[in-house]
Amino acid sequence: MKIEKIVFATGNAGKVREIPAILADLGLEVVSMKEAGIRVDIEENGSTYEENAMIKSRVVAEALKGAGRQAHTVVMADDSGLEIDYLNREPGIYSARYLGEDTSYRIKNANLISRLDGVPEEERTARFVCAIGAVLPDGRELTSRGVIEGRIGYEERGSNGFGYDPIFYVPEFGCTTAELTEEQKNRVSHRGNALQAMKAQLLEMMNEQEI
Fold first, then answer.
1. From 79, 85, 102, 138, the catalytic residue
2. CATH 2.40.340.10 fits 5-207, yes or no
3. Catalytic site residue 165?
4. How confident is the model at residue 44 (pLDDT cuts 50, 70, 90)?
5. What is the distance between the alpha carbons of residues 199 and 192, in angstroms, rounded to a whole number?
6. Distance from first CA to last CA of the chain, Å, rounded?
7. Comparison of pLDDT for 74 and 24, the residue scoring more
8. Which of 16, 85, 163, 198 qualifies as a FRET site for 29, CA 20 to 30 Å off?
C-alpha cells in the first residue's frame, strides 16, 4: 500500500511548525488538517492521552474517507499535557482546557506558578507527556508516547516555544523548553520523542513492505 501524505489533525500553529521538521526524513508530504481542507468538530472525551489522540485521528480519517481522499494517506494526531507532581499531576490531559480553552497561556502559566508559591525546588518536578495516534490507509492503528522530565520554574522564560514551554525548566540544558533552539527541542521534547517512536514504527512497516 503506497503512502504519499501525512495529515496531522491539529490547528495549533506551534505544532504545525514543529511536526513537519521532525517527520521530514520520511520523505512524505506533511500537512495540517486545515491545509487538507478538513473542518470538523472533535470532542476529546478520552481518559488517556492515547485515547484522545486516536479519537482525533479517527474523526479526521473518516472525514477524508467521506471525501474520497483517504487513499495513500496516514492520519496522525497528538494529545499532550503537563503533569505537575505537587499538584497531583494536574493539569494532565486537561492541559489545553485548563482555566478554559480560550484563556491565554500567560494567564495559565501565572496561575500554575502561583499555586507553587513557596514550594521548594526538589518538589517542583513535572513532565510533558505526548501520545501520537495514527490511522493507516488500510484502517490499522498505531500509537506511541514520549516524555520529557523537568521542573516548574518561577517565571516565564524564553520565546521559542508555546503553551507551557516558558515555565518548564529542563535541568539538563539549564533553561526552559521555550529557550531551547528548534533543533534541540525537536530532539528532546515529549512530542519529538513520540514522533520519532511513531516514525520508527512506520519505517519498519514500510521496510517490510507491509504498507
1. 79
2. no
3. no
4. confident
5. 10
6. 4
7. 74
8. 163
